[in-house]
Design goal:
Radius of gyration: 26 Å
Oligomer: single chain
Number of helices: 4
Number of strands: 15
Strand content: 35-45%
Shape: elongated
Distance between the termini: 74 Å
Order of helices and strands: HEEEEEEEEEHEEEEEHHE
Helix content: 10-25%
Number of domains: 2
Length: 269
């Protein structure tokens, strides 16, 4: 009789534990794992990065006026004939984000992006499924105020010609556009309409977040294709009369361009 009672009790306890576990959310409970779920109450296995990281490439496609941007070419921007002679900007802190919100960042990768070059190596990332890419337009504060002379010629952080560095106080020019606009309304951009749009300083670091589902794996393409829409960058800019800024000398224009940066990047369609 006692044996029967014991078996009945054991069965009841097992059933309660089973029902209790069914009511709890299952998932990975290790914060160091790729698939960590902060809401999980029952650990059902985790996935971890391995040493078999995969090289990933960024393709930045730069567009304006419905076509490809080519330096030293003329475009009609906000109704004004404009020559874009130099267009380049820094990209850093490149990060891939998975569905659980885990982020993998290559902090040591700095790119100086130009229209002539579409493909850039952005380092190695663990194989897996990602849902988003994040990156900065500009350079982090520590690197921004470091000594650029310690970098070799050819390094994006080294000396550039024309220069992409203001000096110790402001650091790097995060984004530089030089050109000529039609200042007198004759339909021809010329030297009388020369302009410079130079953005930089820590306050103008812009973090971009783009939904971009991609599976990184050996044998896959492993390319992040993005568009940079310069029509969006120039939105609201008076190209004939208010087109030059070095941040402090025209804060209103700098702020306008800075806000436009957040909307100019997207996944290539």
């Amino acid at each position: 009789m006692k044996k029967s009672v014991f078996l009945l009790t054991l069965t009841t306890i097992s059933a309660v534990m089973f029902l209790s576990s069914c009511a709890k959310k299952e998932g990975c409970m290790d914060q160091a794992a790729l698939n960590f779920d902060p809401e999980a109450e029952v650990d059902m296995g985790c996935e971890y990065a391995t040493d078999d990281d995969v090289a990933v490439t960024l393709h930045m496609h730069q567009n304006i006026g419905g076509g490809e941007l080519v330096e030293e070419s003329m475009y009609t921007i906000n109704g004004v004939a404009t020559n874009l002679n130099l267009v380049q900007f820094y990209v850093s802190a490149i990060t891939l984000v998975d569905a659980a919100g885990n982020e993998i960042t290559n902090d040591d990768v700095y790119l100086l992006v130009t229209p002539e070059e579409e493909a850039y190596s952005i380092g190695n990332f663990p194989a897996g499924d990602y849902t988003q890419i994040k990156f900065d337009i500009g350079i982090d504060s520590v690197t921004n105020h470091a000594d650029p002379s310690k970098y070799d010629i050819g390094n994006p952080l080294g000396a550039q010609f024309p220069s992409m560095h203001w000096g110790w106080s402001f650091g790097y020019i995060f984004l530089r556009i030089d050109g000529e606009a039609d200042a007198d309304g004759n339909g021809v951009p010329d030297t009388d309409g020369q302009f410079e749009m130079h953005l930089g300083s820590d306050a103008y670091l812009a973090t971009i977040e783009i939904d971009f589902p991609i599976t990184i794996a050996e044998g896959n393409e492993n390319i992040v294709h993005l568009d940079a829409d310069w029509d969006t960058f120039f939105t609201g800019v008076d190209m004939a009369n208010d087109n030059t800024t070095h941040v402090t000398d025209n804060a209103a224009l700098s702020s306008l361009l800075y806000e436009n940066i957040f909307n100019m990047f997207s996944a290539e369609e």
